[in-house]
Amino acid sequence: MRKLPLSLTINGETHELLAEPHHPLLEVLRTQLGLIGTKENCLEGECGVCTVLLDGMAVNSCLLLAAQCQGRRIVTIEGLGGPETLHPLQETFVEHGAVQCGYCIPGMILAAKAYLDQNPEPTEGEIREALSGNLCRCTGYQKILDAVLAAAGVLAPMR
Amino acid sequence: MSFEYHEPPSVSEAVALAARFGSEARFLAGGTDLIVQINRGKLAPRHVVSLHRVPGLDTIAVDGHVTLGALVTHRALERSPHFQGRYRGLVEGAQVVGGHQVRNVGTVGGNIVNASPAADVVPVLLALDAAVTCLGPEGERTLPLEEFLVGPGQTQRRPEELLTTVRFPLLGPNSATAFLKAGRRKAMEISVVCVAARMTLDAGLERCREARIALGAVAPTTLRARAAEHVLEGEVPRAELLRRAGALAARACQPISDVRASSQFRRLLVETLVPRVLARCLERIREEGR
Question: Which domain holds residue A136?
């Protein structure tokens, strides 16, 4: 099949590229654009490690064709903050020791970001529910929850 | 395994593509089932027709009826102000489908066409007497959702037809819906059994005027438990009668045994969940009446 010319807006930057029609966004991010912060695992929407933001919503980039993303805003973990400019969620994850092996963390942080943008003052139960599409094999859920709650405390007054 | 990708800008062009390619084409909505099946090699369509540029399919309209466009997402159902009261069962069904990432993109139309016997929104739609409308090259046809569902993964949709809308009548006063699901864990779980109910009481809030009970994951398709509905209608829905409806519903289903649960356990779940989901409808009606 012929490749598709795509124009994708990722972390505020526009990329012109050629992609296979069946390639999910995840594949294009990791192999064509070198944005390897977005992780690959189950490829069936169960684990959430490939979570990115699409027009501000959390989505699984393994189930989204790159071709469907034209004209939409994509944010990956690289777009949230760098080593010198951590996002408050990244800061609280560090402070609370919420990162063990780290593989699930980009997805956790982006799912949390999408949720806090809609509900700046969530309860603990609401955060658990919001992160139910993200698995952590280290089972570090409690500290992840603590970090998201702390980030909500930092972010809410800034809104 | 690759395919040709199409992005028609209108419903008529989407249908024209489907008519041209027939069973070699698949419509792509949220992709949470289709892309998984393509990745697993279960499906290998030569043409994928994405619907995301087709306008108007993602609207929820409430006039004489409730009409859901096929591309209404689970998230949109959960959040719709229309469904927080009498239609609450719809919200309850939508909010147990996958995690936020899946519900943000997964659609009602996809949930129906995928025809999983364990679909969570479908039993609620059956309890609401929903009908689906398909558009093909020869025009539109509307049929009851119950008839539309044929078996696991099978519907009456022809390859060249697009399911465009799902529609159900407005609920009058003294009505409520509810949905309950049993899974092995609380989140991200395929239903072991799910049940939906709708109940309408008479003006005095005493007798049941109309009842609907729909069961998921206990038969090749989502199923109405008619005998259980009939035993309720015209009667005072006391706890004892709700239990009888549960027993009749358990008799009506034909569950399989699989990795999630045995057939016997599924029947027990139906027997337990049906009285509970009916009781929840009654509570809701009485709360609204207060």
Answer: 88-158
Question: For chain A, which residues lie within 8 Å of any Cβ of chain B, measuring from their own Cβ?
Answer: 1, 4, 20-22, 24, 43-46, 48, 51, 54, 57-60, 62-65, 67-68, 111, 114-115, 129-134
- Whether residue B284 sits in one domain with residue B181: yes
Summarize pLDDT for A82-140 with one digit per residue, the tens: 889 999 999 999 999 999 999 999 999 999 999 999 999 999 999 999 999 999 999 89
Could you tell me which chain B residue has the CA closest to the CA of A51? B101
Q: Return the residue matching tokens 């998230």.
A: B75
Separation between Cα atoms, residue B211 and residue B188, nearest integer Å: 30
**B55 found inside a domain:** no
Residue A82 lies in a domain: no
Residues of chain B found within 8 Å of residue A64, distances taken between Cβ atoms:
31, 35, 105
| CB contact at 8 A, B284 and B175 | no
Q: Are residues B88 and B179 in the same domain?
A: no
Q: Does B52 touch chain A (CB under 8 A)?
A: yes
Q: In this structure, is the dihedral angle defined by the CA atoms of residues B19, B151, B117 and B82, taken in order, positive or negative?
A: positive
One domain, residues B180 and B266: yes
Instruction: Please answer whether residues A35 and A78 qualify as being in contact, where contact means their C-beta atoms are separated by less than 8 angstroms.
Output: yes
Which of B4, B100, B104 faces A1 most closely, judged by CB atoms?
B4
Into how many domains does chain B fold? Answer: 3
Option in A22, A43, A57 nearest B104 (CB):
A57
pLDDT 10s digits, B13-59:
999 999 999 999 999 999 999 999 998 899 999 999 999 999 999 99
CA nearest neighbour of A73 among A127, A114, A126, A13: A13
Going by the DSSP 8-state scheme, the letter that residue A24 receives in this structure is: B
Q: How far apart are CA B248 and CA B42, in angstroms?
A: 37
The answer to whether the CB of B163 falls within 8 A of the CB of B133 is yes
